[in-house]
Backbone:
C-alpha cells in the first residue's frame, strides 16, 4: 500500500512540474522583463504638468481589446410616452369614475390629471405616485388590449325542409 501511495505522490509531483512549463524541472529561468517594463515612471512633481506628444492617440476600450458594454434592449427601455389619444383615454376613465372633471380630459397630462390618478391609486390601495403604471391602467379597465380570438366559422345554416 505504501508503494502505491508513494508512486501516486511521485506521479503528482512530476505532473505538477510538467505543467509548470518545465521551469522547475529543467532549471530554466523565466525570461527577463524588457527594459520598458522595468522602467517605472517617476512621481509627478508638484506644479508640473504632463503633455502628450502631438499625434499621439488616446487608447479606447476597443483598441485595448475590451468590448464596450452594450445596452440590452428590453420592452422596458423600448416603451415610449403615451400618445395624446391614450392620455385622453386614461383621463376619460378617471372622469367616468369621478376622480377628474370631464372638461379636464384634454389629452395633455398635467397636474390635475396626476392628482386625480393619485386619488384613484390611493382608493385602489396602489402606490399613489400619480404616475401611469400597468396596475393603475388595469384597475381603470384600460389594461393590455387583446383581440378576441376569432371563433370558428359557422357552417352555413340550411333552413329546415330543404
Residues:
Amino acid at each position: 500500500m505504501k508503494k502505491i501511495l508513494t508512486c501516486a505522490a511521485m506521479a503528482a509531483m512530476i505532473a505538477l512540474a510538467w505543467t509548470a512549463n518545465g521551469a522547475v524541472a529543467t532549471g530554466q529561468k523565466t525570461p527577463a522583463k524588457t527594459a520598458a517594463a522595468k522602467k517605472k515612471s517617476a512621481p509627478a512633481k508638484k506644479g508640473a504638468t504632463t503633455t502628450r506628444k502631438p499625434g499621439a492617440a488616446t487608447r479606447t476600450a476597443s483598441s485595448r481589446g475590451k468590448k464596450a458594454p452594450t445596452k440590452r434592449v428590453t420592452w422596458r427601455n423600448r416603451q415610449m410616452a403615451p400618445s395624446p389619444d391614450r392620455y385622453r383615454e386614461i383621463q376619460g376613465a378617471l372622469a367616468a369614475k369621478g376622480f377628474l372633471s370631464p372638461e379636464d380630459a384634454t389629452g395633455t397630462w398635467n397636474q390635475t390629471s396626476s392628482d386625480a390618478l393619485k386619488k384613484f391609486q390611493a382608493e385602489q390601495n396602489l402606490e399613489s405616485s400619480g404616475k401611469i403604471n400597468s396596475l393603475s391602467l388595469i384597475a381603470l379597465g384600460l389594461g393590455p388590449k387583446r383581440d378576441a380570438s376569432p371563433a370558428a366559422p359557422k357552417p352555413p345554416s340550411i333552413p329546415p325542409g330543404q
